[in-house]
Design brief:
The protein has 310 residues and is mainly α. Helices cover 77% and strands 1% of the residues. The protein has two domains: 2-194, Four Helix Bundle (Hemerythrin (Met), subunit A) (Up-down Bundle), CATH 1.20.120; 235-289, no CATH class. The chain starts with a strand and ends in a 21-residue tail after the last helix.
Length: 310
């Protein structure tokens, strides 16, 4: 697969891709599970809080009725408390998108809400009409409120137990995921990371040996060329100079072969010029400068220059 001239999923790098992708996936899964857990805990805490407020609203309802019977009556506060009590009961069972509360699916808690429904309906029906406040039996209202409180206390406790159970379940899932992640990491270390490290060390050792051997051979030919260059400078005999040119040419051929072997062995990965290329080019320029024009220079069809014996 190529994108923009770059080859992706190259065979030699598949282990690296597998390692990186697995780590990214594990990170995403763990973060997603953490966010989901926090979201569920927030929703559960809100439900428990709202269920607890229901008990407070029922008590306020009784206090407002007492004030209306024996003190100054605040009809607006009575109506607001009664409406909140009734609406919140529906929200706790059916959920609410705005508050991010999911519909209740626990059968045991729903049965408790069914027990609560008659008392709530009676309170809403009897206290909605302000003109009937004087005729309502206060003890009947107190009985309904007490029954509401008792059932609501049970519902709150059930919500709390459900919350604790959900938290324990999420903790177990997170623990299992953590153990699974550890196994994945250990597996990748022994079967991906460790082999990669061993392969890199083996390649490094091999390349070091090749570089050491080739550099010594390269240095040997360079020394020969340097010695021949010195002899060429002091030699005055033209016949001897021609012979030295041939020796330099042969050394240069050997040097090119060494250079080619170095490139093949090290598997060149860059197009930048190597130092030995610069040296070879210098020697070739030197030969071009002192290239003999005599007909006695021989040419062989194998494409390499050889010394001519006189």
């Amino acid at each position: 697969m190529k994108i923009g001239g770059l080859k992706l999923f190259k065979k030699g790098f598949r282990a690296y891709y597998l390692l990186v992708v697995s780590i990214v996936l594990l990170t995403i899964i763990i973060q997603s599970l953490t966010q989901y857990t926090l979201k569920e805990q927030r929703s559960t805490a809100l439900v428990v809080n709202l269920a607890g407020r229901q008990r407070m609203l029922s008590q306020r309802l009784l206090n407002e009725l007492y004030s209306c019977r024996f003190h100054n009556c605040d009809y607006a506060e009575m109506k607001l408390t009664l409406t909140k009590l009734y609406q919140m009961n529906d929200i706790l069972q059916e959920g609410n998108v705005g508050l991010k509360i999911a519909p209740l699916d626990d059968a045991d808690i729903l049965r408790e809400f069914d027990k609560l429904e008659p008392h709530l309906e009676w309170l809403y029906r009897e206290l909605s009409d302000f003109e009937k406040f004087d005729t309502i039996n206060f003890n009947d209202v107190r009985y309904r409120v007490d029954r509401f409180l008792t059932i609501m206390d049970g519902i709150v406790n059930m919500f709390q137990k459900k919350s604790e159970k959900d938290i324990k379940t999420m903790m177990i899932i997170e623990l299992e995921l953590a153990i699974f992640s550890i196994f994945i990491i250990i597996f990748e270390f022994f079967f991906i990371v460790n082999p990669i490290i061993n392969r890199i060390l083996a390649q490094k050792k091999k390349l070091s040996e090749i570089a050491w051997h080739q550099s010594h051979v390269f240095a040997s030919h360079m020394k020969n060329i340097s010695d021949l260059q010195y002899v060429l400078k002091v030699e005055k005999n033209q016949e001897r100079q021609k012979e030295i040119y041939g020796f330099i040419s042969e050394e240069l051929d050997h040097l090119k072969a060494v250079s080619k072997n170095m490139v093949n062995s090290l598997e060149k990965t860059t197009e930048q010029e190597k130092p030995h290329h610069f040296v070879i080019r210098k020697v070739e320029n030197l030969l071009e400068k002192y290239k003999p024009t005599s007909k006695e220079t021989a040419t062989i069809d194998d494409g390499t220059a050889h010394s001519v014996k006189l």
